[in-house]
Amino acid sequence: MSSELRERCDVAVVGAGPAGLEAASMCARAGLDTVLLDEQANCGGQIFRSIAASPLPPDSVLGDDYWRGRALVREALHSGAHYVPNTSVWGLLREGEVAVSHSGRAALIAAKRVILATGAIERPFPIPGWTLPGVIGAGGAQILLKSSGLVPRGPTVLAGCGPLLWLIAWQYLNAGVRLVAILDTAARTNFLRALRHAAGFAASPYLAKGLRLMRAVRRELLVIGNVVALEANGNGKLQGVTYRTASGSRQRIDVETLLLHQGVVPNVNLAVSAGVVHGWNEAQLCFVPLVDGYGATNVPGLAIAGDGAGIAGAEAAEARGRLCAIAAIRALKPQLEMADEEKAARALLRRFTRGRAFLDALFRPSA
Description:
Elements: E1 8-14, H1 18-29, E2 34-37, H2 64-67, H3 69-77, E3 82-84, E4 87-92, E5 97-102, E6 105-116, E7 120-122, E8 135-137, H4 138-148, E9 156-161, H5 163-174, E10 179-184, H6 189-194, H7 198-202, H8 206-220, E11 222-224, E12 227-233, E13 240-245, E14 250-254, E15 257-262, E16 264-266, H9 269-273, E17 278-281, E18 286-289, E19 302-304, H10 314-332, H11 339-353, H12 356-362
Parallel strand pairs: 1-2, 1-6, 2-3, 6-19, 8-15, 9-10, 9-15, 10-11
Antiparallel strand pairs: 4-5, 5-6, 7-16, 12-13, 13-14, 17-18
Helix pairs in contact: 1-3, 1-10, 5-8, 10-11
């Protein structure tokens, strides 16, 4: 690893999360001059945030799905890819030209191929009182846990919907946080809509894992469902959260920390600025870039991997990163045979997108 920027490279990968790590590793091992750019000080992206520098004991609190990211980081850092952390990519200018800020200066990197692996961002969840100190996004709270081992000290409530809400509840219970309740805002009718996708979900790896997680949380924590209204209360800081259910029941819980979450959406800022065509994804209620089976966009030489091309989770992101890398390798080193690698990547992608439609319907935010 070196902090020096290069003016030229074969492949520039933006983002060192699951997709970016896999794309950079595969390109570098194929002999391509590969640069891996990331704004954080350590590899991992949001899913594996600070995995090489977490203050938490290994194999504790965060679960196996987090700690398996160590192997991805290790492989990428030993692949020969030129990893440059603490680097903000702020523009994709002319074709193959990446504009960055690093060590207090701006620079341009000329790349034959660019792979965006910018991941996802938390969907804003505005409610009355959401700007009070003590109200925080669940994703932001999880970043504090992963990177610094920081958790709330006082009574805490989680509110909203989505798989991350249940995961962070489980992680917080492991960390000894004083969790009071989950206020679930997913409509009960979501389950009926999700049922038509149940066969695919039953055959996916998510079923058993999700059931174990939710059962573990429900054993320890009060879950209040069908919440249709939320309000954070307090004078100068959060002191309570008031909620109303679909039956009309209105209650208040005294609380010092409120974590809000309503799902994640692709981080499309760079893609939009580069002129990538986007379309509305009604299932995930967000705009997504229009890409082909290798992540290629309408912009020549620019591909998008991972959750930046549509929310599907870490394993699917890794598969998409590999497919973007395969396309880059074929374009720049056509003599290399990649059929087996592509077959394996597509099998992985199929396996981990099989249950996605069920999850999208089940955790669809209410109107």
